[in-house]
Amino acid sequence: MIKIIICGAAGRMGREIISAAQESHDFNIIAGVEAPDNPNIGKTIAGITIIDDLISVVPESDCVIDFTNHQAALENLQKVKDFKKPFVTGTTGFSDSEMQTFVEFSKQFPIFLAPNMSVGVNHLYKLVEDSAKVLSDFDVEIVETHHRAKKDAPSGTARAIARVIKGVRPDVGFIYGREGLVGERKKDEVCVNSVRGGDVVGEHRVLFLGNGEFIELRHYATSRRCFAAGTLEAVRFIIKKTAGLYGMQDLLVV
Question: What is the model's pTM?
Answer without folding.
Answer: 0.83
